[in-house]
Design goal:
With 172 residues, the chain is of the alpha+beta class. It has a single domain, classed as Calycin beta-barrel core domain (Lipocalin), CATH 2.40.128.20. The chain contains 3 helices and 10 strands, in the order ααβββββββββαβ. It has a 10-stranded antiparallel beta sheet, sandwiched between helices. Helix 1 runs antiparallel to helix 2. The longest helix is centred in the first third of the chain and has 13 residues. The two termini are 28 Å apart. 33% of the residues are buried. InterPro entries: Calycin (IPR012674), Lipocalin (IPR002345), Lipocln_cytosolic_FA-bd_dom (IPR000566), OBP-like (IPR002448). Its main location: secreted. Belongs to the calycin superfamily. Lipocalin family. Keywords: Secreted, Signal, Transport.
Length: 172
C-alpha cells in the first residue's frame, strides 16, 4: 500500500499536467468533513459559508475538480457543488463565497488535508485548513498533522471545529 502511495506521489511530482490530474483519479469518491480550522471562526460556524459537509470529490482529466457538499443554514442542509480549475499541481482556483486558492497539502487513501486562502466579496482574507476522511473516524496521527498545518498558518487551536459531531445532512 505504501509503495502504491509513494508511486502516486512521485508520479505527481514528475508527471505532466494532464497526467498528474489522472493520477489523482483514484482519490475521487465519497469523502466527509471531519475538522475545519479558520483564522476567522465566523466563516465556519453555522450559517457561515465554510460550515460545509463534503460528500464527494471528483478529479477530472480536464484539470478540474468537482466538490459536492452541504452547507448548514438556519439548521437546514443546503446542497452545493463547486468546480475548481487547476492552477498547478495540487492547487485549484474555486469561486465560492469569494475567490479561493485551494491547496492539497497531504493526500492519502484515507484522508485529504487541504488549505484555502479565501478572499470574500468585501476583500476580507481568511485562512482555512480542513481534513476530509473516507471513514467515520480519522487517526490521531492524521489529526495531529491537520493541527500542525493549521498552526503553521497562524490559526489558533480554539478556531478548530469538529464537523463529525453535528453532521446530520444527507449521506448522498
Amino acid at each position: 500500500m505504501k509503495v502504491l502511495l509513494l508511486s502516486v506521489v512521485l508520479g505527481l511530482l514528475y508527471a505532466g499536467h494532464g497526467e498528474a490530474q489522472l493520477l489523482l483519479k483514484p482519490f475521487s469518491g465519497e469523502w466527509k468533513t471531519h475538522y475545519i480550522a479558520a483564522s476567522n471562526k465566523d466563516k465556519i460556524t453555522e450559517n457561515g459559508p465554510f460550515h460545509i459537509y463534503v460528500r464527494h470529490v471528483e478529479f477530472h482529466a480536464n484539470d478540474t475538480v468537482d466538490v459536492d457538499f452541504y452547507v448548514k443554514s438556519d439548521g437546514e442542509c443546503v446542497r452545493k457543488q463547486v468546480t475548481g480549475e487547476k492552477e498547478k499541481t495540487l492547487v485549484y482556483h474555486i469561486t465560492y463565497a469569494g475567490q479561493n486558492k485551494v491547496k492539497i497539502l497531504r493526500l492519502s487513501l484515507d484522508t485529504i488535508i487541504g488549505s484555502i486562502h479565501n478572499v470574500d466579496e468585501d476583500g476580507k482574507e481568511t485562512e482555512l485548513v480542513g481534513i476530509l476522511g473516507k471513514r467515520d473516524q480519522i487517526s490521531d496521527i492524521d489529526y495531529e498533522k491537520f493541527k500542525k498545518e493549521a498552526s503553521d498558518r497562524g490559526i489558533p487551536e480554539e478556531n478548530i471545529m469538529n464537523f463529525t459531531d453535528n453532521d446530520d445532512c444527507p449521506a448522498e
